[in-house]
Amino acid sequence: MKRLIPPYLLGSIFFVLATHQFIGDVNSAPPLKQSSYELMSAENKAMQDDPSLNPAMFWVGDGETLWQKKLGPKNKSCSTCHGDAKKSMRGVAAQFPKVVKGKLQTIEGQINQCRESAQSVPALPYESRDLLALTAYIAMQSKGLPITVSEDSTNTSYLKKGRQIFNERMGQLNLSCAQCHEDRAGLKLGGSLIPQGHPNAYPIYRLEWQTLGSLQRRLRNCMSGVRAQQFEYGSAEMAQLELFLMWRAQGLPLESPGVRP
Amino acid sequence: MSKTSRTSISMPTTAKKDSIIEIRAIAQHDMESGFRYTESGKLIPRDIIRTFTCTYNNVEVFKADFYSGIGANPLIIFTTVAVESGTLEFTWIGDDGYEAINQARITVS
User: Fold this and answer.
1) In a domain, A5, yes or no
2) Which of A43, A134, B10, B90 is surrounded by the fewest CB atoms within 10 Å?
3) Helix (H, G, I), strand (E, B) or coil at B48
4) How far is CA A20 from the centre of its chain?
5) Hey, are the CB atoms on B26 and A53 less than 8 Å from each other?
6) Shortest distance, CA B31 to any CA of chain A (angstroms)
7) What CATH number should be reported for the domain holding residue A252?
8) Which of A44, A47, A53, A207 is the best mutation test for B, with the most CBs of B within 10 A?
9) What are the structural domain ranges in chain B?
10) Domain tally, chain A
11) What's the CA gap between B86 and B56, in Å, rounded?
12) How are strands ordered across the β-sheet holding B86-94?
């Protein structure tokens, strides 16, 4: 049988086809935003959805108590200024991080800002039980509401920096956030599916941690995974990256407090 | 010294006589295994829940022993037969004087 194509050309034909495929992918519509909830087992989904199974509800209960607790020389509680959290905090978590008085604030940062200025009590350390409890209680008031972080004149420079961090290769493995969570989302890393990396359920009860944790803890996890120097808790870089991620997840409903494996 | 924590029970408030009811009992607890070390190499002492019991109108209907391998915030799901109206009492007892008690009422018809 006569060959139609000489074997030495097959390689270049494959190359042409591969390039074409690549161009096709770039031109196709961006994939829909997907919460990593969709990747969980039925048991884990049930654990998040049923308040009697979701361990994060313990922190929400603690947060409700702390919201009412009068503190410091001014004898003020959160509720002294903000009243009923169910009304005043509704939708708040869906707007953060946001620029408050010229500074980009995360929810945790804003809680501590309130403690230091309005209550005159020391800031709570990151990942402390009380800070997680207050964050969980506040975030819970926005459960089911879509993330509304958008670009405006106040946050545009922070958003630009956050996007830069997201796309920057880091660590000994020399990987950027985008290489996994943008380019390879939906593929596998070891046995697990790579999620799109939307922060729409924080603070989360992570089964691996056996406790509740903040978005910054989760981000530091990834950074240590790629053998990079981790950003400090509460740093400006963390806030910028959080802002970019929330902007990127715009429209996804908040699930806080979420459960993740 | 006594320690306690939040607990939560979910079970039906009413049931038909002799029907099987499902009870979920979860307690907030770190369940520190006693096998972990601090960054400076010091052993973190064990601090776990040791036993969980459920009594139904003062009759013990369920009991479980917990060990170091059980994760934080343990959830127990079990069933019992709804024999009569009354109170179910749940008790968690653990290391370092830990004790938590919760109650739930059921009306059986």
Assistant:
1) no
2) A43
3) coil
4) 35
5) yes
6) 9
7) 1.10.760.10
8) A53
9) 7-108
10) 1
11) 7
12) B14-15, B98-108, B86-94, B49-56, B59-65
Residue A120 lies in a domain: yes
The ipTM estimated for the assembled molecules is 0.86
- At B5-50, the pLDDT tens digits run 999 999 999 999 999 999 999 999 999 999 999 999 999 999 999 9
pLDDT band at A28, cuts 50/70/90?
A: low
For range A123-136, the mean pLDDT: 95
The fold of the B7-108 domain, in CATH, is Immunoglobulin-like (2.60.40)
Which H or E element spans position A26? helix A7-27
Summarize pLDDT for A179-203 with one digit per residue, the tens.
999 999 999 998 889 999 999 999 9
Per-residue pLDDT at A10 exceeds 50: no
CA A254 to chain CA mean position, Å? 10
Contacts of B72 (CB under 8 A, 6+ apart): A55, A210, A211, B29, B30, B31
B80, B20 contact by CB (below 8 A): yes
- Residue A65 within any structural domain of the chain: yes
Residue numbers of A annotated as active site: 222
For residue A66, the enclosing domain spans: 35-261
* Structure confidence at residue A26 (pLDDT): 46
Task: Provide the shortest C-alpha distance from residue B58 to chain A (in Å).
Answer: 25
